Amino acid sequence: MAKAIRMHQTGGPEVLRLEEIDVGEPGPGQVRLRHVAVGLNYADTYFRNGTYPMPLPAGMGVEASGVVQAVGEGVTNVAVGDRVTYTGFLNTLGAYATSRLIPAAPLIKLPDNIAFETAAAMTMRGLTSAYLLRRIHDFKAGDTLLLHAAAGGVGLIVSQWAKLLGITVIGTVSTEEKAEVARAHGCTHTINYSHEDVAKKVRELTDGVGVNVVFDSVGKSTFMASLDSLKRRGLMVCVGTASGPIDGFNPNLLAMKGSLYLTRPALADYIADPAEKAALAAEVFDHVGAGRIQIEIHQHYALEDAQQAHRDLESRKTTGSSIFVI
User: Where is each Enoyl reductase (ER) domain found (predicted)?
Assistant: First the structure.
């Protein structure tokens, strides 16, 4: 029997239960996967609290790494014994488990120089960073970027990668400790939003011009400050809503603030094409494998500590990446 975190209703961390499950044998197009490490992502809380609707009861988590134990009929992209990682959305839900059945299509073979723990901490965050920096805007050396949650898992990858591209990163943080972490990983400037006016500080740092792009994963509480930090015809990228959904607004606001652009992307739409997913993954693995980007795993949890892991995540106690070690 395997162990898995499951939920029978939406709500707070208390709805997460550790249960024994019978994994069974893979059907057509499936594999049975033994997990070694499982990723903990803020998006997991959206499934748990009902922001992302799903049929119940259900498993939890969309990212993990492990070893293929068995393959079903028609599976050709992986074989028994392969080291793999994955991330996705509803098609990979159920990652908080010691082993599971999963469609073979989302699986990505791991290079030998990428550890399982590293993969679980970086697959979603790395692919997210990749599409943000390599697909969503034509960044050039000398551009400026306002990055919210700069000390988080995505933030630390984006900061390092942006520095490689010659982008000046202004990162927002909630504590001086997080500011030190962000600066150590590529942020040129940090703003402590707990006592500094973000938009005002951005204008000071950019000689009144504003930034080219904002990556905002916070949402409701930072939305207006993000818009006010952009230069004329700048791009606002709403990556997440950690503080809650953004209130409705009149699109004329974008014109009034400088003919701004706004997008709300989803990772699923940037990895739907297998060729594009492979290209983005290869670029991430190359940077990490060569040591140009460090993956910082600052929190390790046991599977039975899922409730506490979610509490830590939502209270913003974490920095870098968090994983479950199986």
Answer: 11-324
